[in-house]
Amino acid sequence: MPGRYRIFQILSLCLFTFYQIGGKAQSVNEAFYKKLNEHIHSDFFSPIDFSGQFKPDEHKTLWHMADNSVTVHDGDQKIQLRLDDLSLHMANKVASKYTIGLYRQDGTKTSITSLKNGKIKDNKIIFTLNGGALTLSITPFKGFFKWDIVPASAENIASMALKIVAKGPYFGGGERYIGTKLNGRTVSNQPNDHYWDPPKTAVTPWGNPHKPGHYNNYEPSYLQIAFYLNPFGEAWFVDDASSVFASFNENGESFEIRVENGRTTFYSIHRQSAKEALHTYTSIAGRQPEIPDWATGVWVNLLDGQDSVIAKAKQLKEWGIPATAIWVFDMGDPASSQGYQNWTTGTYHSLREMNESLHKLGFKSLSYLHPYQEVKLPKSDADNPIYQKLNALGGRPDRGLG
């Protein structure tokens, strides 16, 4: 879609994954890249659908619709979504309220503040809006709702904004470089590896007394997630690979999520506590497996070639330094998408031999794993055959997952 800035197009600049080097070079997974390219070049990319972690049948619950309200049963609790004003009610909690703003390609805007004439089909409530130009479906689950907004044509809607009136303070958004409280701030789901130079405000009194340029309007972070929550059991997650910007009211009364796409899916979670809301979110997005003890130990970064790495690793053992892992990244191995050779020098004769030597010393081996391929071989003018192979599958492997 013209003008769309997909988050995956910039992952190559700033996303890194620690990767335990295997005994042999990992071959490029052509099937994975092909599937990924198909999703990226579709009208809508759902990270949840792509990952396959969400199991809808595990979250089914009893619900009914009457008097233009949807009531969901969650154990002894009831959650009521009143469609007349898109407000959500739970016992002993402040009601929250939703407004959906749709921005057309011609610059006009439509606000959805109520819904009616919903049809129940396959556990969903489906609403046809704007004379059939848009379909909005709501699927009730135990403790949350899934909202799907789908235009009849990808050209109908340019972007949308979800305004949510709910009690703050607000937290989330993924990794944060400054305070975790989001009140009065705007964050995005784009990974940004740049210097953040904010203006001087009440939120950032240490900032500079000037208006920032566009490049630093939004806080940089390596790991952004369009997931937000308050301390009272409410949470919101936008399941979309397009650019998402969330602006939070300084007083903690409301916030707005802007999605740069004409179609989106988002989840509104409604539990008794923030812990329960987080548990529900991870049941949708997937949970971190239990990590081994060595992963929480001391990691030492060793560089400058295979011989240098092994010699320094032996010194660590002689000195009795209780390191558990050696992180090496200045090699270049396109076949396994490993390494980052920009600054240091040194020859790596065989990653297998280096890895085996480190294992014999009792260390785990870690490196960078890139989601992209360079056009040329490292420090060379020669074409990278892995890039050429992936490029033939479609997409731009030099732009990461985009």
TrEMBL record:
It comes from the Bacteria. This is Alpha-glucosidase.
